[in-house]
Amino acid sequence: MFIQFTRNGAAVRLIDRTKELAVLDSARAEALSGRTRTVLIEGAAGCGKSSLLAAVAERAADRAVVLHAEGTESESGQPMGLLRQLLDDVPADGRPQLPDPDAGPPRPESMREFCTWLHGFAAAGPVVCSIDDLHHADELSLQYLRYFIRHVRSARILLVAAATPQHGSADSSLQSELLRSPASRYVRLRRLSRLGVAKMLDADPELSRQHGLVEDLHNISGGNPLLVRALLEDCRAAWPDTAEPRALRPVTGGLFAHAVDTCLRRSGRAAREVAAAFTVLGGLGTPERSAELLGISVSAAARGIAALTSAGILDGCGFRHPAARAAVLDDFTSAEQAGLHRRVARLLHDTEPHSTAVTGHLLASAQADIPWSETPWATDMLRDHAERLLARDEPRQAAAALRLAYEACSDERIRIDITTRLSTVLWRFDPRRAEGLLSSSLDIAEGGAPTGPQLGSVAHVLACQGRVAEAAGINDRIAESANRTGDTSLQLPELPGSRVLTSYWDVPDAADRSAGTAAERVLEQSVLTDTTLHALQQAVRALAHSAQPERAAHWSQSLAEEAERRAAPGWQALFTTLHAEVLLRLGDLRGAELQAAAALDVLPEPTSGAFASAPTAVLIRAHTRTGQFAAAADRLNRPADDQLFDSIHGPGHLRARGLYHLATDQFHLALGDFIEAGRLLKRWHLDRPVVLPWRTDAAEALLRLGEVQQAERLIQRQLASPDARHPWVRGISLRTHARTVPQEERPALLGQAVEELRRSGDRVELAQALGDLGRALQSVGEATRANTMTRRAWNLAHICGARPLCEETIPGRASRDLTRERTLIPATTAVDSKLSGSEQRVAALAAQGYTNREISLRLYITVSTVEQHLTKVYRKLKITRRQDLPVDLQLASAQGS
């Protein structure tokens, strides 16, 4: 059953309040007949006390004078505030003279005078005194009310007061007085039952048809009428069309959240603080823990919990719904929440030192303005937690734990270890920040007195991140300390065959045929982690410079995909860059462009940091090779990172810029870039032509400037290096060397260069050498062979997308023009008729410069099968070597395969 009345012109429904209204009606009738009655209505915030008071006032309004007062927390300290508010509805000339509140404790005669006045006022007509939120009343007003209850017996007065019982404020003595008085009545308001919630829902036929809504409403609100009404209003706002069943989800920041906030404020400060404690304690919340956390008694905490439970916000020691918890959190600043988390962490550490909940609260306390001196144990706990997070592939959370561990630590030496580790973790997803953080670690190391192992750790991470200049500096510092103290244990362990720490970026000797096999073994047996990252990276680089560079493409792509699956964009960018470098080395210019751009795309700050220069350099070189000079210039015009030329990526950037200058006829600028790249590499003991052939680059610039002798000296030095045994190094060196010798000697050198470059797998360099060979043959009168080599060079350059090289090889000749002038090559129809489909595909790829291994990978056949097909092709076409293969052997079908 429900009862409806009006308040301020609006209809108010009282659900399941029949018994309570009966008590109030009986007390009202007795008061109207001349017997003073007092009623205390108790109930949790939001349970309808105010509505019940309004109902009493509404029913008595036609026969009695209604005086109303409402206690508030902000006015609870104003003496006589509640009593003065109660008298506001009395005409000024008829009000009693109240004593000055500053005159000290009230005298009995003053309270007697007030009661006499009230008795006389009621003689003119019945009086209803309605007091809401009595628990916020000031003490002086309460003394007057207690005196009234004890001494006024036969007047037409009904005093109705509403209070929240668990507040524990000064109204407890008044409550005792009321319970002792035979003229008093007590009404306890409870939350609504499920049936009561259903009755509230009956007022909205559309919502009442929603299946399971009553159950959801009751579970979330606990039957608190205020919360139920707020939830219903949220439903109406969120469900404009209620034809279909909907799940009940309180709206974030909606009326439900405001209703929870209202309940908290009306329940008093202690209840609000207990609610805040429970938001951070979670499932660990108990009266004892919340009391210790808040610095209050257990009984006070228990009263707060009882008030929140009565209001339907808590269910035992947990929130009924996450939306209620969120509403409580909204009432506190982030700093206040963080402070609670720090206190919870300290509390739990004292009782459960190994609980993972402790570190969770420490992390949530990042904004707390509480000295870390109170939690000296936090540093080690947070560092251990970070390692557990890394084992679960949660690097961002691990980084947050390490940052907080750094803040909690006062020992500068330990801070170096934390910063170094944090830099390694950050590399997974933000290389730029990792580089910056390691710089701060380096500053601390240089300013303090770190141990040898700490310096070694910093140097190792610096070297792995490519900052070889700084790593070498620390290595020298350790060596000097060892020489000065005689303590050789401080020296860094060197890798086999290396001289300094910077050799972390070296590659195996060209003569070491087992290097590629060893690299693949590392790649097959290692799992991608922080500790294996550099080893895997170096294994890919070793493969890229071995006799099987295409295997490096496979592994770099595989590792990049693994990094993407594990949400490690820093690692993904690293291996994607390696993939781009390998593709560029193989002459796949378009693929190199795509991969380099992809590497930059996954970086949070793609235009900054020394590492970002690595994929950028690949893009610049690919753009330059494909004739996209404006795009290359755009990349070069962007500011370089301050640490770029202290890192391994600096020489690569210089070479990319130099090649652009060379292609755009800025020969002096190009020469300067190549010489500076060489200077850096020599300084770091990394001068390896197989990695960066700056001497042949510089020789090219010198030849364009007419400095033949200087160019020859550089080329000879490169040919004398151990790396000259590598087909790629030897091939590009011989090709450049051919330009320094008389014309009649050039074909032989270029023929050797073509053979070496064919073995290396670099199709762009092979096209360059074939073009040079065609011109050299033309100059000595071998026109037929010259035309064949030229067309092969053009076709290979065209397949790679090297437009400037196409133009250099056959100026002004578009791809469609090439088919019109093939007088020196047998007709394709005649050739095709002699070969099977498989033989045509193998021969076409061989004519384009692919190695047997590359053909096998491309056509998914064995190398032995490739060799067999080529043997048959040679026999059918009556040729003896690969160079004599016609270039127009169904090129389109070969590309399609």
From TrEMBL:
Q: Is Methyltransferase included in the keywords of this UniProt record?
A: no
Which SMART domains does the record match to this protein? AAA, HTH_LUXR
Give every HTH luxR-type domain span: 828-896
Q: Which GO terms describe its biological process?
A: regulation of DNA-templated transcription
Q: Give the signal peptide range.
A: none
Tell me what this protein is called: Helix-turn-helix transcriptional regulator
Q: Say yes or no: keyword ATP-binding present.
A: yes
InterPro entries this protein is in?
AAA+_ATPase (IPR003593), AAA_16 (IPR041664), P-loop_NTPase (IPR027417), Sig_transdc_resp-reg_C-effctor (IPR016032), TPR-like_helical_dom_sf (IPR011990), Tscrpt_reg_LuxR_C (IPR000792), WH-like_DNA-bd_sf (IPR036388)
The source organism is Streptomyces dioscori
Tell me which CDD domains the record gives. LuxR_C_like (cd06170)
Q: Which domain of life is it from?
A: Bacteria
Q: Which UniProt keywords apply?
A: ATP-binding, Nucleotide-binding
- Provide the GO MF annotations for this entry: adenylate cyclase activity; ATP binding; DNA binding
Instruction: Spell out the GO cellular component terms annotated for this protein, sorted alphabetically and separated by semicolons.
Output: cytoplasm
